[in-house]
What we know:
Strand content: 5-15%
Oligomer: single chain
CATH architecture of the largest domain: 4-Layer Sandwich
Number of domains: 3
Low-confidence stretches: 1-6, 115-149, 352-359, 510-531
Amino acid sequence: MPPPEISKRVLDSKLEACKFAFLKLSAVKTTRMKNYKQLRTLLMLKEISRRGADRDFLKDPENSVTRILCSVLKQVVSNSDRSLKSLRGFQYETLDDQEKQQVTRMIASVQGMGSRKYEPETVDHLEDMTEPIEMEIYLGNGDGGDFGDIVLEPISWPLESQLTLEWVETLMGLLNQSTWKNSVSEFSLILPHSVAVSLVDCASQILEKEANCVKINGCSEDSRVIVVGDLHGQLHDLLKIFDQSGRPSQNQCFVFNGNYIGRGSWSLEVFLVLLAWKIMMPENVILLRGSSETRVSAEELDFLKDICDRYGEHGPMLYSKCIDCFKMLPLASVISNSVYTTHGGLFQSCGVHEESPNPSLLLGSLEELDKIERRQAGENDDENITLNHVLWSCPWMADGLSESNYKGLLWGADCTETFLQQSNLKMIIRSHEGPDARADREDMGNMLSGYSIDHEVESGKLCTVFSASMFSQGSRNYENEGAYAVLEPPNFTEPVFVSYTVENVPRLQHQIISDGSSTQQQQMWENRTGHGFASMGISNPPSWTVPLPNDPSQILQLREPPQVFEGLPLPDNIQEPHKSNYDYLFRLISALKQEIQTRDNREKELMDHLTKTKATLEVISQMSSSL
């Protein structure tokens, strides 16, 4: 019986894994490593992954483990010159005598290998091979102790902004490795501020041209679509999805349902990686807007702090560009004229039908969705009712369409049926809700598997997908799986949900933003969240970020004042959240007074300097005229 043929999907996944491994290893600067074992392992693993990325070799089912190992050895031999160059560039000053001897032996071994030939066709048993070189896999376990010696090369923006697969893979590898260093202090050395700005600017230009509802048509028989839910700044969940499902390609489209930033440690990293893929494959990577991608939510999630931790004084400018980029993100997609995806859900119509008993809660249509202005220049997205509904609405089990206690709507299975029927669709895949949102909703799926089937009606289904595994909200940790949906031809209406977990991930330690103790800095940012206002129904408290009047695109970040403004004495019996809200306002007023005083002093110093300069010029002019 002939051996089974390897499927194209399995082959593609193996190829992508090997390419990713090779580029990740290539990002490490071997000539500056301090540990001999690291160097030796990197050289060997690079050659293994290089050979593993050979499509013609992998797809041959005759290639047994023996043949693959022999071929790897052959590949090492053929690249012995490159290995020798790396070995000879090693910094011997950092080694002890024993390690120096090991490197010398390795050089001799590689030189000897270069003079031999190993043909897989002539080898039938592993014993026929020469004595194998000792290889120890050196992979950190996430404790941060083993990664301090690894030096990561900074990435530069490509000429003419033409991103390649190698560039994007290198970016992902660098960002992944930087997370294991458990520090963001060196982030700007790995990903320079100018590169991050270029990513956001270039992607914004592409996103701005897309419709509110992106149509994904022309799917071939061997293509498929991956729908990803909330990531909440969990970079390693995103990388896990790419590793399991494969990268975006001409035959594999990705739709991301929003909420890229969140309480996770790597919000900026997630957003930049997705922008890079969008720039490289704009037709095959669809980025939708989530409820986190608004100015109000970004402030509540400390997104500015995350960026300032990484880029210091340059952070506010990048933050402002990210906020503008959020406004360019489309709101929904329709896959193969059958599946509607969005972040939150359904929305009310802007029209009024007199025959409707409740005209204010009439269900909206795809035609109306295309007409709303998502790129509005206003600072507050709350003014756009339809936008809020798309981002914040949730399904429930009761029939009808009604207002929720926040910004969105609640809709029942009858509304799902109406929307699918009127739009000639078969399915809705939305996100927005994870295990935290469903914890108190016993009538809905608990999302612990990363997805739920919420409505099953005559015309189709409504599903929710959530992609942040092991999600944490406040002090509560949910041991949930993340999930993504796989849609395949012919009609793309029977999704396969793939669940997964990413447990061993690095945790970012708190970074000191400026001079002062970490406790003070943490308190500073906690005081800026204004959580007490939310409990009073105020979703947009006074902000610590102020657009400058002469250039609204530039954001001023107010600093924590050394002294807090003393207002009127508060009653002794004042309770929460009112006490916290007063404290919040007093600190904000003090920060504003401090900024005004600082600017007044600067202007005074400038005027004094100009006055002295003018007097000096007048003296020089008089002296010149007398000559």
